[in-house]
Design brief:
By secondary structure, this protein is of the alpha/beta class. The chain folds into 3 domains: 76 residues, Arc Repressor Mutant, subunit A; 124 residues, ATPase, nucleotide binding domain (Nucleotidyltransferase, domain 5); 160 residues, ATPase, nucleotide binding domain (Nucleotidyltransferase, domain 5, 2-Layer Sandwich). Helix content is 43%, strand content 22%. The chain has 14 helices and 16 strands. Helix 4 packs parallel to helix 5. The longest helix has 25 residues. The two termini are 31 Å apart. Belongs to the ROK (NagC/XylR) family.
Length: 391
């Protein structure tokens, strides 16, 4: 009897997670649509929604009475008051955001850095920011966890940053440091892998089961893979390090770094140098590139586009994605001439795996990594919404 009770409770917990995940990932929807999507009966869905509402994870509201005849079903939406803290350390800044379960960005700050922060300094800064928010922007909100998107190799098993070369972090227990500083449950992942997850759920790769995502930031180029609808991390969680590949460069005149990796040639720092800028966030860099009339800037953009196109053609041949999403400054390179860049990739790729391929800039813009980090923090909640949080 006890085993049966545990089995029934286990099924209920899974169903609670399924309903919460549905409204979180696909947005507010009616009970009727939840019933159709889950295959559960109406009374079961009503019970599950009531339990989630009592826990403060969803809210129900009346539907628009003008949209349909008959008795419309109540609308269920993820709570705006349940949030995850998202962290993205970079070489030039620390970004921290508070992302609601509903998807709303409740708070965000970017603190510029004139030197590299240590893992310990990063954890202390995050704790300071979160503590300030608790008394203001997040007063009365439930913080369920913290996700960190780190530009480096992150061990999947325990969130240890094995190597973040541009930050000069090595074998850093970042998850442990953040937990000790904030008291929150912490998930740590590679920034580009988390960005890929965000774009697949909510952005430019939504609806695509096979996607390649490359992120271009101040720390270089990272990547993430979605194959058959599943994020691919590899044996240790290190898959997707596109920036460390040696690119094929047909014209030696295009080479700037002898025996350099892709991120040495296709580089945010080189774009800033061409523009005469020391640093800039993504919107500022994009605006500067769009406004520039300098021939030197145009030449550098075209050089980087040529090299990036050959690298992406290799990804097309090996992985046969239906979409390639480019975040950060890589998306800006595409925006300079989207049709021309598409043609350049196809010129180097086999025609069969390139059929149906689309290449897009990231749709979530500067929020992509923070949203990805928040998704990592939300994962335990979505798996078991009513579980007691760890001490």
């Amino acid at each position: 009897m006890a085993d049966r009770a545990m089995s029934v409770e286990g099924v209920r917990r899974r169903n609670l997670g399924e309903v919460l995940r549905l409204v979180h990932e696909e947005g507010a929807q009616s009970r009727a649509r939840i019933t159709a999507s889950t295959g559960l009966n109406r009374s079961t869905v009503a019970d599950l929604v009531a339990a989630l509402a009592e826990a403060g994870l969803v809210e129900e509201r009346e539907p628009d009475q003008t949209k349909r005849v008959g008795r419309p079903s109540p609308i269920v939406a993820s709570s705006d008051d349940v949030v995850a803290i998202a962290v993205n350390p970079e070489v030039d800044a620390l970004e921290v955001g508070a992302i609601a379960l509903s998807g709303a960005v409740r708070a965000r700050v970017r603190e510029e850095a004139d030197r590299l922060l240590t893992p310990e300094e990063t954890a202390a800064a995050v704790a300071r920011i979160v503590e300030g928010w608790r008394g203001r922007e997040l007063a009365g909100k439930r913080i369920v966890g913290l996700g960190a998107a780190v530009p480096g190799l992150v061990r999947a098993a325990d969130g240890v940053v094995r190597l973040a070369p541009h930050l000069r972090w090595r074998e850093a227990a970042v998850g442990e440091l953040l937990h000790e500083a904030t008291g929150l449950r912490v998930a740590v992942g590679n920034d580009a892998s988390l960005g890929a997850r965000a774009e697949h759920l909510f952005g430019a790769a939504e609806g695509h089961e096979n996607a390649v995502y490359l992120n271009g930031g101040a720390s270089g180029i990272g990547g993430g893979l979605i194959l058959d609808g599943r994020p691919i991390g590899g044996a240790g969680g290190y898959a997707g390090e596109w920036g460390q590949n040696r690119p094929g460069i047909p014209d030696d005149a295009d080479r700037r770094a002898p025996d350099g990796a892709l991120e040495d040639e296709v580089s945010r720092a080189r774009l800033l140098h061409a523009l005469g800028l020391v640093s800039a966030d993504d919107p500022t860099l994009a605006a500067a590139l769009a406004a520039s009339t300098s021939a030197a800037v145009a030449d550098e953009v075209e050089r980087q586009r040529r090299i990036l196109a050959t690298a992406l053609a290799n990804a097309v041949n090996v992985l046969n994605p239906s979409v390639i999403v480019l975040g950060g400054f890589l998306g800006m390179l595409v925006a300079a001439d989207a049709d021309g860049f598409d043609a350049a990739v196809r010129a180097h790729a086999l025609s069969a795996p390139a059929e149906g391929l689309v290449i897009r800039p990231a749709a979530l813009a500067e929020d992509r990594l923070l949203i990805g980090a928040a998704e990592a923090a939300f994962a335990p909640l979505l798996a078991d919404p009513l579980a007691d949080p760890p001490a």
